[in-house]
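Q: How would the C-alpha cells look for this protein?
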Amino acid sequence: MSDLSQTPEGPVTPTPAGRHHERAPQPPEVMTSGRGREIKTLLVANRGEIALRVFRTAEALGIRTVAIHTAIDADAPHVREADVAVEVPGYLDVDAVVAAAVEAGADAVHPGYGFLSERSVFARALEAAGITLVGPSADVMDAMGRKDAAREIAVAAGVPVIPAYDIDADPTTFAYPVLVKAAAGGGGKGMRVVRSADGFAEGRAAAAREGLNSFGDDTLLVEKYVESGRHIEVQVMGDSHGNVRHLFERDCSTQRRHQKVLEEAPAPTISADQRAAITASAVALAANVGYTNAGTVEFLLDNATGEFYFLEMNTRLQVEHPVTEEVVRIRGERTDLVALQLAVAAGQPLDFAQTDVTLEGHAIEARVYAEDSFGGFLPQAGRATHVAWGHWIDASAAHVRIDHALHSGQEVSTYFDPMLGKVITWGPDRESARAALLDALDGTAILGLTTNTGFLRTLAATDEFRDARIDTAWLDRNQVPEPDRATARTLAAALTLRDAGDSPFHGDGWRIGGERAPVRVHLDEWVEVPRDVTTQLAARQSFRGLTKVHHRDEHAIGFARRHEVEIVHRGQRHVFNFADPFADTAAAVGDGTLTAPMPGTVLAVKVAVGDTVAAEETLGMMEAMKMELSLKAPFAGTVTEVGASVGDLVPLGALLFTVTPIQESADA
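A: Here is the predicted structure in C-alpha cell form.
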C-alpha cells in the first residue's frame, strides 16, 4: 500500500517570495533511448493525487520532479512532494506552463489527466520549446480528441461504431431513444438522452450549451442510445517504433450521468470471445492512427445483443489506471503504466510481446468525491478537520491501495475537480476484492465536510454490484438507499456519554491547545445506552431505561463537541445534536428561506423583492464545478429577500432568497 502523504526528504532551499523552491538534487538515473532523448527532469502539469502518482514513479527512476501550482495551491501536497515547484497563474495557462518547464529545465512534461492533457495546442507548444510530452502527438490528439473525427477513423480501421443520425435531419425520422452528445471533449459532459421527437430540440440545445461551456465547441453528434449496456475500455500502449500492445480491459459501467463511480478490471461479464474481439479492435484503431504512449479506447457493449461499439478514445492516462496496474502482469511482473509512459516518451521500444501480457486476480477502484450523494450529489467544500484513509484495514488474501492528496487540516475548495482520492483494492477473485473494498471504505473517515464515501460503501454492498448486474444507466434509474442512521446515532450517543461512565470509544490521546483527537469505536459486544438519549442528555438526569444496541462488529470515528457529535460510520458522515430534542441535522426546512446548497457562482436571479411567485417557480440559478442548480420557491408566496446578484461568489449556506406565504404577507 502506498501512502502519498509523506513530505519530501532532504533539505529545502528557499528562494525569494516563495515562488520557487527546490530540494537538494540527487544524481538521476537518466532515462535514454537510441534516438538520444533523455529525461532527467520531469514537470507534471497537474495537481492532486495524479501529480503525486507520477512523482512516485519518477522518483523511483531517479528523475528530478517539478510541480506547478497556483497561488491558492502553494501549500498543496503535490507541491511539498516535488523537488522543484513553480507558481503559474493557472493550470490551463499553456504559455505559463511551458515557461515553467523551460525555467525548471524540464526535459519532459507529464500532463496527468484533465487540464491540458488532451490539448493539442499544449503539445505543439512543448514541441516548439524542445520539450517532450509524455503522451501522443498533437496530430493524434486532434484526430482522436473529437468524437466525430474519431468515429471516421474507427470506421476506416474496421472497428464497429454505434448507428448515428445526421444532426440536422428531421428528428421525427429518428428511432428513439437517441443520445445527443458534444463532439469535442469528454468526461460525460455535453450529453443528453432524448426519448421522443418532441424533446429533441430541448436536448439538442442543452447538449450544445454544455459543450460550448465545457469545451468551447457546440458541435454535436446524434447516436442510437443503448438502454442497457456495459462500458468496456481497453488500455493500449504504443511506441514510436510501430508497436502497439493492449493491457486488457476495464469495466466502468457503474456510472452516474456518464460520470464513472466504480471501476474494475478485468471486466466481469464478458466472454473470452468478446474480450478477444474488443482488445483486437482497440489495437487496430491505435495502430491505424499511429498512436504512441498510453491511451484508452472505450466501447459500449449492448447487453441485449452482445454487440459492441466504439465510443471514443482518451489520449492520456485514465483516472482508473490503477486497476489495470493491479491486475496486469508483463512476464509475470506487476505493471507500472507511468514507467511505461516515460520509457516510450524517451524513445524506447516496447520490449514485450502481446503474449507476455497476462491477468492475475481482480481489482476495483472507488472514486472519493467531496459531494453530498444523498443530498442531490451537490459539491461540497470546507476544511477536512480529520482524514483517515483505509490503510489500517487488514484484509486477508487481498490488499488496499490508496491514491490521494487529502490530509487532515486541508481546505477543499470549489476551484478544482471534487475528487479527493481513490480507494483501490486487489484480490485473487472479484468477491475478495469487493470485500476488501468494503473494509477499506469502512476505515475511511473524512470529518469536516461531506463526501460520497458512504454512498460508495452502500453501492459496493448492493446485490446488483456484487452480482455485476449494474449497467451504465442503473444509477440513473435506481436510488441507492441512505446508510442506516440508527446505528450511527447510537455510536454518537456513546461518544457523548464517554464522561458519564464506560464507553466503547477509545481516543488516540489528548492534546493541549488544539482540537480534540479523533475517537474510534469498535462495537464487538452489546453496548447499552439510554433509550431516550436526547431527553436524558439535555436534562443531565440519571441514566435509566437502558436499551441494548442490536449491532455487532460496527466501527466509526468521530468528534464530540459539547452535545454535538460529528461521526463517520461506514464512510457516511453524520452530525447529531443531542442538546435539542428536535435537532437531528443542521438542516431547517419549511420557512421559505433558500440558502446556497453548495459554494458557487450565482448564474441568474429571476425575481425581485415584492414579486409574487408560484410553488416550484425558479427564483434563480447557481453553478459550482460545472453543475447547474435551479433554486425554486418552496411554496406560493411573495419574495421578501434577495440576498445575491448575478456573478456573486457565495459560500455554502449563504442566504439567497426568502419567500413568505401569501396569507402571511397579507397579515403582515
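The chain is about 25% helix and 30% strand.

The CA atoms of residues 59 and 527 lie 49 Å apart.

Upvote if useful.
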